[in-house]
TrEMBL record:
One of the record's GO molecular function terms: molybdopterin cofactor binding
Composition-biased stretches (Polar residues): 551-568
Species of provenance: Haloferax prahovense (strain DSM 18310 / JCM 13924 / TL6)
SUPFAM superfamilies given in the database record: ADC-like, Formate dehydrogenase/DMSO reductase, domains 1-3
Keyword Zinc-finger: no
Domain 4Fe-4S Mo/W bis-MGD-type: 6-63
Biased composition (Basic and acidic residues): 596-608
InterPro entries, A to Z: Asp_de-COase-like_dom_sf, MoPterin_dinucl-bd_dom, Mopterin_OxRdtase, Mopterin_OxRdtase_4Fe-4S_dom, Nitr_red_NasA, Prok_molybdopt-oxidoreductase
Region (Disordered): 542-608
Protein name in UniProt: Nitrate reductase
One GO CC term on file: membrane
């Protein structure tokens, strides 16, 4: 191999949704990265970077995919790109001829904006399927629905600039110390002169360093938010001027509130804790929430209730407001560009004029475009599609009730496009190896709407292709002319989707690669080459903060209070399943672990309070030493090792969401508004490992 001079390449970390700028140093003699560090010239992080983002960019531990694979005689074997793509094209074309909805497409928040846009264009405009998701329904859909209901538009009103301005930081159902380390550093610095309070059933790493921790019952978030709102009303803490001048629906919400004491009891908290939370809102407060709120059958209702608290207390404006914390690196980008929940630019699916605009821009019949955004991942699999194409995602481990998901994948023609081996790869009929961080060209969009460049610092290895080129090659076979033939210019694709957002609430038409190369990062809306978005819906052009102008893209121009009551929890603990399972993130985990396999034990570790372990000691191999057990839900049983942990309340079992076995246990119930699954709560019991093994053996004998 010819030696080459390594160069430092500015790019963006794709580890989480903070969107930190990185500098990558490519190897001067081979493929790969020699060094990774924070970029001091990037306006998002100014050189800060977390250790895991650096480690996983420089040297991920997963098993790389290096050649296309096809299944023959039950085994995956290497093949050529032309053979692999021909099989994919034939399978999709045959299924489309029967019914476009026979093709299910799953994207990811790990794709660049360009790849996400191209995949959505192909799924919606080329194939015409309703069964398409960009992975956002598994994590952010409830927050999205709440934003639309409140403000008429998606995305948090605040930005990172508001973090140092806030006096109170209320973190609800989120663990940014683990999930968003750089952002959490800003929160802690700001809270040095204010308050950091965490609402969570578990004493997370965030809660452990907070000024206060409100240990709520699992699933009690909606009741607690409503209790706090009721207490604001009772103690005359409502910002009447803001509510009367800029909102609608407040009286209806108040009329439907349960008594404060009753709601607090349902949430499992004291009235003193309700008062504590209400008093926090007297100061400028940022209310952050994450998967602990969103991933619930009550996710949209609870997210809306948290927005209600901000509206009622006047916590909307610089240094305050509702701030959902996004998980995957480019989840925001997929919301804007991928045609999952809306057409590009947040154009509504159901609006005929927007459908016509998109159809004309894409050169396809408007009748081919679905008139709704589809059933979400759970509903998609319930329809048993004949072809499933996954891109940078691992549904066999990431879907709820993963055993049922396996059955769907086994019965389908499964195409997996990814950079690393995964559980889903092992079931695939065709595997398409894709480039990953450090090898990709494009852009990404962080949780506060900032767009920045992703650049390759190393060449793509032989046998591996860019996501964008793979998607374009499939498009050439199933919908000729829809996308350029590979290799595709990412900048041309960026210009296409940016133009399609012109005049929308998520206007990116003033962005270009040239501008991003010069400014490093720009926040939308950016309708012209010099503008950049700030705090949303707020105009203080005269600099008089006491008399700002508010304008919301709702029919009345006012923000809307949410009156959703929320669904009943699908699986409360009972006599047969007396414990509650919840899931959470680990500091070094990554999605379903495909990049961090060396840190993933064969069997999950189940954290539980010592009293819980003692109460169920008959289900433990040896309570004094060997703490192996089996966690059993109504869907599956999973071997685990119990870890005594006072941070987990009695009656609760905590499993890492990153472990590929965890979601065999979780419930497929979904939020009726967002279709987001109820990952955070289901009923389980513990069984002795020998008892479970005997039961499994008997079941196998019966089936034989």
């Amino acid at each position: 191999m010819v030696n080459r001079v390594a160069k430092q390449v500015p790019t963006t970390c794709m580890r989480c949704a903070v969107g930190c700028g990185h500098v990558h140093l490519g190897s001067d003699t081979s493929y790969g990265l020699d060094a990774v560090r924070g970029d001091p010239s990037h306006p998002v992080n100014n050189g800060l970077a977390c250790g895991r983002g650096i480690r996983e960019s420089a040297d991920p531990d997963g098993s790389w995919l290096t050649r296309p694979l096809v299944r023959e005689n039950g085994e995956l074997r290497q093949t050529s790109w032309s053979d692999a793509l021909a099989r994919v094209g034939d399978a999709i074309t045959d299924a489309m001829a029967d019914d476009p909805d026979e093709v299910a497409v799953l994207g990811s928040g790990q794709q660049t904006n360009e790849a996400a846009y191209a995949l959505g264009k192909l799924a919606r405009g080329g194939i015409g399927t309703r069964n398409y998701d960009a992975n956002t329904t598994l994590c952010m859909a409830s927050a999205v629905k709440a934003y639309y209901r409140a403000f008429g538009s998606d995305a948090p009103p605040p930005t990172y600039d508001d973090i140092p301005e806030a006096e109170t930081h209320l973190v609800w159902g989120a663990n940014p110390a683990v999930a968003h380390p750089v952002m959490f550093r800003w929160i802690r610095q700001s809270a040095d002169d204010g308050d950091l309070v965490v609402v969570d059933p578990v004493e997370t790493k965030t809660a452990a360093v907070a000024d206060d921790h409100v240990a709520i019952d699992p699933g009690g978030d909606l009741a607690l938010a409503q209790a706090v709102l009721g207490h604001l009303v009772e103690t005359d803490r409502v910002d009447d001027a803001f509510v009367e001048g800029y909102t609608e629906g407040f009286d209806r919400v108040v009329d439907e509130l349960s008594p404060v004491e009753e709601a607090a009891s349902e949430a499992g908290v004291s009235l003193d804790e309700v008062e504590k939370l209400a008093s926090l809102l007297d100061a400028p407060t940022l209310v952050y929430w994450g998967m602990g709120v969103n991933q619930s059958v009550r996710g949209t209702a609870t997210a809306g209730a948290l927005v209600n608290l901000c509206l009622a207390s006047g916590n909307l404006g610089p240094g305050s407001g509702p701030f959902s914390l996004t998980g995957q690196a480019n989840s925001m980008g997929t919301r804007v560009v991928s045609s999952k929940g809306t057409w590009p630019g947040h154009r509504p699916f159901e609006h005929p004029d927007h459908r016509r605009t998109v159809a004309e821009a894409w050169g396809v019949p408007v009748s081919r475009l679905p008139d709704d955004n589809g059933p979400g991942p759970v509903g998609m699999f319930e329809s048993s599609p004949s072809v499933v194409w996954t891109v940078a995602t691992n549904p066999l481990a990431g879907f709820p009730d993963a055993t049922a998901a396996r059955e769907v994948l086994e019965d389908s023609f499964l195409v997996v496009q990814d950079a690393f081996r995964s559980e889903t790869v092992e079931l695939a009929d065709v595997v398409l190896p894709a480039a990953t961080w450090g090898e990709s060209e494009g852009t990404t969009m962080n949780m506060e709407r900032t767009v920045s460049r992703v650049r390759p610092a190393t060449e793509t290895p032989p046998g591996v292709r860019q996501d964008l080129d793979i998607i374009a090659d499939v498009a050439a076979r199933v919908s000729p002319g829809l996308l350029p033939r590979p290799s595709v210019s990412p900048s041309d694709v960026f210009d296409e989707f940016a133009a399609l957002t012109a005049g929308t609430d998520a206007d990116c038409s003033g962005l270009s690669y040239t501008r991003l190369d010069g400014e490093r990062a720009v926040r939308w809306p950016a309708p012209d080459p010099t503008s950049e978005g700030g705090y949303r819906y707020y105009d203080d052009a005269d600099g008089e903060a006491d008399d700002p102008t508010w304008s919301f893209p709702t029919p009345s121009g006012k923000a809307q209070f949410s009156a959703l009551s929320g669904s009943s929890l699908p699986e409360p603990a009972d006599e047969s399943y007396p414990l509650t399972l919840t899931t959470g993130r680990e500091a070094d985990g990554y999605n379903t672990g495909v990049r961090t396999r060396s840190d993933t034990p064969d069997e999950p570790v189940a954290r539980a309070h010592p009293d819980t372990i003692d109460a169920h000691r008959d289900a433990v191999a040896d309570p004094e030493g060997d703490r192996r057990t089996t966690v059993v839900s109504r869907r599956a049983s999973v071997p685990a090792t119990l870890d005594p942990d006072d941070a987990v309340p009695p009656g609760l079992v905590w499993l890492s969401i990153h472990h590929p076995m965890t979601n065999r246990l979780t419930s497929p119930a979904v939020d009726p508004q967002s279709n987001e699954p109820n990952f955070k709560q289901c009923a389980v019991r513990l069984e002795h490992p020998e008892t479970t093994a005997s039961t499994d053996l008997l079941a196998a004998e019966v089936s034989d």
